[in-house]
Design goal:
Elements lengths: L1 E8 L4 H18 L4 E9 L2 E8 L2 E9 L3 E8 L7 H15 L7
Length: 105
Amino acid sequence: MSHIDIKVPHTLPREEAMQRIKTLLTSLQGQYAGMIKNVFQQWDSNEGRFSFSVKGFSVSGKIYIGVDTVRLGSKLPFLLSFYKEKITEQIMKQGTELLKNNVTV
């Protein structure tokens, strides 16, 4: 397994950042029907756990919402580890866009 650790800066109130992330996680299964299944998320204050399967591979991780940074840590299955850079790049790109102060979800 390969581990990713991503930090995305933000200027939103924590509750707003959390709500946007929750909405994104909830929409993944519908947005990528056939690829992503079994989306799960559980939150305790500013920390969340998530899991889902991508084309049969299980992915899980944790999210921490700080005052000015969202941190995501996840373990990737061996076969997905070959795409670690691309996955990290996409999460950074989409996370930055999602957490922009002027974007409404």
